[in-house]
Design goal:
By secondary structure, the chain is an alpha/beta fold. About 35% of the residues lie in helices and about 20% in strands. Strand 13 and strand 14 form a beta hairpin. It is globular. It comes from Pseudomonas poae.
C-alpha cells in the first residue's frame, strides 16, 4: 500500500470541475485544508456562493474520488459556504448590513422580471443565504402580493428613522406598496421617484444580508441611473422573452449597465416554450433561442430558460412563488440552478477584475 500525500489528493480534486465556478476546487482557491493521517484523509473546502442544496452531493462525489486513491481507506470532505462582500461601482459606499446587491432588470414590462426576482430571492435563501428583496418598481410594486403580505400591512419604524422590512417566506421584503394605498397610483415625476428609491434602500433596517435582490422597474430611466450612481450593485441579471421586441429592449438594458460599470451576470429567458397541458405538444409562442442569442452577443451566460407555465403565474399571484410552493418541482430546480449561477458569477466577476496599478512617489 503506497503512502498518500497532499499532492496526490490535490491531483484527484483537480479532475473535478465545480459546475458553477467552471474550475476545479484547487484552481478556484476553494481548498482550505487537506489533512492526511495514515490512510485517512480530511479535506475542507469553502465556496464563496450560496450552495446549500448542492454542496452535499459535491462533497460525496469528491469523497468517493479520494477514497479511490491507492492507500486511502476513508475520506471526509467538508464544504462550507462563506459569502463575502464583493466589489461594486467605484467610490460608492456599501449598504449597512448588506454584502451584495443584485439588480434584476428588463428592458420592457411583462417579461416576468418580478416573478424571476422573487424566485431568485427565495432560491438564494433556500441555498442557505440570508436574503432581502427590495421592490424598486415604484409605479407598479408587486412583491408584496407575491410574498403573500396582506394588503394594508405597514412596516414598523425603528428609532423614528428606519423602516423595518417585513419578513415572509424566509426573506426580508421592502416595497413602496407598504407605504401607500394599493389603489392609489404613484403620480410622481422622476426626481420624486429617485428620492423615494434612495430612501427605501438607505433607510431600511436590513438584517445581516448576504444578498439584497432589487426588483427594478422596466426601462433605462431615472430609477436605473439613480441605482447605478448611488447604490453599490455587485451585478445585474437581465430578464427577457425570446420575442424580438423584448430582445431589442433587453439589449438596451445590457448596454445601460455596461455604461455605468455594473457587471451583467447573465440573462434569464422566460416563456421560452409552452407545453400543452392536454396533449403535451411543445410550441415556441414567442420565438426560439432569443435568450441564448442575446447572451452570446454580449459574451455573458444564459443563466436559465423557463417555460410559459400557468403554475408559475398562479403561484406568484397566490402569494407563494414556485420555489416556495413546489420546492422539489422541476421548475423550482431551474430557479435553484439560477441562484447558484448568480452567486458564483459574482465571485467570478471579482476574480476577473483587473488589478489597479500601484502608484509610488519618490523624491528623485
Amino acid at each position: 500500500m503506497s503512502a498518500v500525500n497532499r499532492a496526490a489528493v490535490e491531483a484527484v480534486l483537480r479532475q473535478y470541475t465545480d459546475p458553477y465556478l467552471n474550475q476545479d476546487p484547487v484552481s478556484a482557491g476553494c481548498v482550505r485544508a487537506i489533512e492526511v493521517q495514515g490512510d485517512q484523509v480530511t479535506v475542507q473546502l469553502e465556496l464563496g456562493y450560496a450552495a446549500g442544496l448542492f454542496k452535499r452531493g459535491w462533497a460525496q462525489m469528491l469523497q468517493m474520488a479520494i477514497e479511490g486513491l491507492d492507500g486511502v481507506r476513508s475520506a471526509t470532505v467538508d464544504i462550507q459556504c462563506v459569502i463575502a462582500a464583493h466589489k461594486a461601482q467605484a467610490q460608492i459606499p456599501g449598504l449597512a448590513n448588506v454584502k451584495n446587491v443584485i439588480a434584476v432588470a428588463s428592458g420592457k414590462g411583462g417579461v416576468g422580471k418580478s416573478t424571476t426576482a422573487a424566485n431568485l430571492a427565495l432560491a438564494l435563501a433556500r441555498e442557505g443565504a440570508r436574503v432581502g428583496i427590495l421592490d424598486a418598481d415604484i409605479y407598479g410594486p408587486s412583491q408584496g402580493v407575491m410574498f403573500g403580505i396582506a394588503e394594508g400591512t405597514r412596516p414598523k419604524v425603528k428609532d423614528q428613522k428606519w423602516f423595518v422590512p417585513i419578513e415572509s417566506l424566509g426573506v426580508e421584503v421592502m416595497s413602496m406598496a407598504f407605504l401607500t394605498d394599493d389603489n392609489t397610483p404613484m403620480v410622481w415625476r422622476g426626481p420624486m421617484v429617485s428620492g423615494a428609491l434612495l430612501q427605501l434602500v438607505t433607510q431600511t433596517a436590513w438584517g445581516d444580508l448576504d444578498y439584497l435582490v432589487i426588483d427594478m422597474p422596466p426601462g433605462t430611466g431615472d430609477i436605473q441611473l439613480t441605482l447605478a450612481q448611488k447604490v453599490p450593485v455587485a451585478g445585474s441579471v437581465i430578464v427577457t422573452t425570446p420575442q424580438d421586441l423584448a430582445l431589442l429592449d433587453a439589449r438596451k438594458g445590457v448596454e445601460m449597465f455596461r455604461k455605468v460599470n455594473i457587471p451583467v451576470l447573465g440573462v434569464v429567458e422566460n416563456m421560452a416554450v409552452h407545453i400543452c397541458s392536454n396533449c403535451g405538444h411543445a410550441e415556441h409562442l414567442f420565438g426560439e433561442g432569443g435568450g441564448e442569442k442575446l447572451a452570446s452577443q454580449y459574451g455573458v451566460e444564459l443563466l436559465a430558460s423557463l417555460p410559459l407555465s400557468m403554475s408559475i403565474r398562479e403561484q406568484a399571484d397566490g402569494g407563494k412563488p414556485t420555489v416556495a410552493a413546489e420546492p422539489d418541482g422541476q421548475i423550482a430546480m431551474v430557479y435553484q440552478e439560477l441562484a447558484r449561477h448568480v452567486g458564483a458569477r459574482i465571485v467570478l466577476q471579482e476574480a476577473a477584475a483587473p488589478a489597479m496599478p500601484t502608484i509610488t512617489v519618490s523624491d528623485d
